[in-house]
Structure prediction request, 321 residues.
Amino acid sequence: MRGPITTGKFAKRQELFDDVGAVLYHVVVVTLSAGAAASLPYAANLIGQTFAMHWSAIERNTVAVIGIEVAVAILLIAGINGLCRAVRNRRLAEMATYAGLKYIVPAGTLTRSQIDQIITRQIRAKNLMIIGSTGYRTFVEPEGELHTVIWKSLESKIMLLNPYSAAARARASALSDSAVTPEALGEQVEKSIELCKRLKAGQKSVRLKLYSDPPHVKLAILGDFIWLQHYHTGLDVHTMPEYVFEQNYNDYGLYTLFYQYFTRRWESAEIPEYDLDTDELVYRESNGKEMRREKFPKRFNNSLLPLCPAIPLADRALQDA
Prediction:
């Protein structure tokens, strides 16, 4: 067993080895550079002699000369096109950076490892804000990308579509999937409500609001990142690309815009809050004073949800962090 003195000696010895290794590395690099510089005249002379010897034979061959000219022209065109493409891509990358756009994930892609890593890092932010349709595939299903996050967050603000509104019926009828019906939307929303109740029973701060206008964006805010998808009129949101925006602390990034969008929607007096204790929709004035309550027309029997989230073994380290 090492004591403090032994450990200190070991650390100093390791630092000495690192310093010696760095010095040797620089010596090797300088030696190789000097050797390469010294050999340049001989290499240039050899290349010149070889080129002169072969060029005398090539210049008398018309086909070879034309072939070389064509090859040079092709390389020149390809080089110019590559340079133009690199400049254009750099300009697009700069614009994406100014806007705060971090990633774009096409629908159906399997390469979500970078976004999953971001979620794993931002899970310690402890605050989660969501705008969605039913929320079922987002944070209720164990396979949902925010299922683990919502169980770990200390505070969650969630806005979902009221399944008994005209907008929900219009949304269900617009989708080509026959399985998406107003009744199916109602079941999914009520399972999301049931999960919110379980979270509140576990001493989590959870607030839920139900809006009644057509859904426009699926939005999730977690720490310094925002996940965004567009609700197309006749397409499932999971067939749409996913955009990830990062807070870049400037005045022209889109993170601030979408954050303000969520805040304004959340503070709107037209969107009632769902009372998880009484199953009522609570309407408030702009100053927060309660105006009236309406009973939420629950009509479906929810299947019981587990009291604890189904967290994969790879994510066990996130628990009790």
Remarks:
- The beta strands are 101-105, 127-131, 155-161, 205-211, 217-222, 225-230, 242-246, 273-275, 280-284, 290-295.
